[in-house]
């Protein structure tokens, strides 16, 4: 629940900020009457995301157990990669996001183009969110993951609206840095769980080679076992391959994400030519 709340909050806030930028630009450029086309694009993107998410769930239920494990494991690994790409992309483009969107809006001459800009930008965020969340809730028999994701999205929408109205000021750079680091930890767990699925399907070896088994200390059905499972995909009896994948992903990715970028080297000034 907490992991999905975090995912919904971060991804939802990104989408909310994008919509806020688009609407604010139209208001400032005295094109308020065209805002409805932005909402048409947003609504169409949401319909697409729900349709894709529903289709994947229906198709997944029709598969055999082994195929489910293969598909689920592959999707989990892809989701971990998607989270990684999204986090680094947001850190790299956050400063120029506003100018890029406004540039797209200024080039949008008609209603269809306006709706397309909104559809593509929000649809991309929505599909990323759906893919990440699906990898964490597949096979769930409770509503907690859905409640967490929905709650995070709702909070993000409220924050986006308040930021747009100027009611609150938050340091977005700090917010995205902290949530990005937490999501890297979540992604490491998703990756390890994907490895477990592929081992269970006998696609990868080493399913029976356990590093340790502390199920008696941290029972999976206990509240703290459920909390650890829901936040970082903790497993009390991981295989060696899971642990290697978890450490091999988390350590270098977190280090690359948190390290300070090197300042750009100053270009040497051209030597002046003195006339003799």
UniProtKB/TrEMBL annotation:
Primary location group: membrane
Membrane topology: Multi-pass membrane protein
Any Pfam family hit: FTR1
Segments passing through the bilayer: 38-58, 70-89, 101-123, 143-163, 175-196, 239-258
UniProt entry keywords in alphabetical sequence: Membrane, Transmembrane, Transmembrane helix
InterPro entries registered for this protein in UniProt: FTR1/Fip1/EfeU
Subcellular localization: Membrane
Highest taxon of source: Bacteria
Family membership noted in the UniProt record: Belongs to the oxidase-dependent Fe transporter (OFeT) (TC 9.A.10.1) family.
Name used for this protein in its record: High-affinity iron transporter
Natural source organism: Aeromicrobium panaciterrae
């Amino acid at each position: 629940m907490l992991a999905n709340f975090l995912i919904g909050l971060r991804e939802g806030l990104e989408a909310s900020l994008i919509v806020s930028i688009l609407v604010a630009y139209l208001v400032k450029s005295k094109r308020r009457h065209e805002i409805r086309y932005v909402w048409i694009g947003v609504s169409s993107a949401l319909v697409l995301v729900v349709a894709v998410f529903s289709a994947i769930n229906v198709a997944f239920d029709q598969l055999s157990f082994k195929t489910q494990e293969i598909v689920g494991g592959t999707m989990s690994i892809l989701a971990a990669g998607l989270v990684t790409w999204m986090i680094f992309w947001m850190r790299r483009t956050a400063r120029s996001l506003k100018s890029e969107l406004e540039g797209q809006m200024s080039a949008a001459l008609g209603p269809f183009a306006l709706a397309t800009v909104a559809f593509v930008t929000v649809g991309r965020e929505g599909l990323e969110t759906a893919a990440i969340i699906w990898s964490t809730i597949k096979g769930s028999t409770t509503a907690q993951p859905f409640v967490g994701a929905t709650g995070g999205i709702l909070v993000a929408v409220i924050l986006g609206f308040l930021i747009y109205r100027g009611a609150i000021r938050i340091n977005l750079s700090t917010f995205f840095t902290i949530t990005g680091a937490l999501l890297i930890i979540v992604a490491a767990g998703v990756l390890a769980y994907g490895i477990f699925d592929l081992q269970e399907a006998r696609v990868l070896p080493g399913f029976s080679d356990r590093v340790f088994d502390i199920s008696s200390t941290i029972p999976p059905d206990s509240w703290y076992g459920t909390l650890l499972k829901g936040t970082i995909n903790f497993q009390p009896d991981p295989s060696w391959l899971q642990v290697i994948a978890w450490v091999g992903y988390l350590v270098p990715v977190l280090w690359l994400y948190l390290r300070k970028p090197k300042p750009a080297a100053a270009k040497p000034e051209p030597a002046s030519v003195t006339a003799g």
